[in-house]
Amino acid sequence: MRRLLMAVVCVMTVGLASPARAQSAATAEAEVRKVIADYNAAYEKNDLDTYFKAFAPDLTQWFPSGRVDLPTYRADWTKTIQSGAKNEKVEVRDLRVQLSQSGDAAIATYLLRVTFRSAKGAVSTEDNQETDVLFKRNATWTIVHVNYAPAKAR
After folding, report:
1. What percent of the chain has pLDDT above 90?
2. pLDDT in tens, 43-82
3. CA 95 vs CA 27, 106, 123: distances in Å
4. DSSP class per residue in 90-132
5. Dihedral angle of Cα 105, 110, 115, 116, to the nearest 10 degrees
6. Distance separating alpha carbons of residues 78 and 48, to the nearest angstrom
7. 127: in domain
8. What is the Cα–Cα distance from 129 to 147, expressed in whole angstroms?
9. What is the dihedral sign for C-alpha 9, 12, 17, 18?
10. How confident is the model over 103-136, as pLDDT tens digits?
11. Distance of alpha carbon 100 from its chain centroid, rounded?
């Protein structure tokens, strides 16, 4: 009888914890989706301060040109924008979010369509595949890794 009672208590405990865990996962996913939306909105507006605040200081990135750290990327992108070039439109498509079981790490994958105007006025639109890895540190989601590459035409 004692074993049966303990088994019932264990099942009830797991059952009661599951809705809270599901709510926590839903909340975490919503938070990650907001970070991705806000970060890409800042990218579209060429708002460098807001854009770069989304990244962790220890950010690593893979671009088609190779691995890039945050100071190098910030300097290069700032120089590009200061030259008169700018993003005109940025669209996040097919966003998918995966969360760690502990709820403090996430992977966001999506297609990013970017319409860009060069300093000389040439306009181009490109589709890119982006994967962002986020960690929740000090109660804040930050992007710790980005993999960004041109998407193959379908």
Report:
1. 82
2. 999 999 999 999 999 999 999 999 999 999 999 999 999 9
3. 16, 12, 25
4. EEEEEEEEEE-TTSSEEEEEEEEEEEEE-TT--EEEEEEEEEE
5. 40
6. 7
7. yes
8. 8
9. positive
10. 999 999 999 999 999 999 999 999 999 999 999 9
11. 14
Cα 148 to Cα 62: distance, rounded to the nearest angstrom: 6
Q: What CATH number is associated with residue 53? A: 3.10.450.50
Number of domains in the chain: 1
Examine residue 62 and state whether it is found in any structural domain, yes or no.
yes
In a domain, residue 10? The reply is: no
CA angle 152–115–140, rounded 5-degree value: 85
Domain contains 57 = yes
Distance from C-alpha of 65 to C-alpha of 121, rounded to nearest angstrom: 24
Q: How far is CA 73 from CA 7, 47, 63, 122, 125, in A?
A: 55, 15, 10, 22, 21
Closest CA to 148 of 133, 136, 135, 137: 133
Domain span at residue 119 reads 19-150
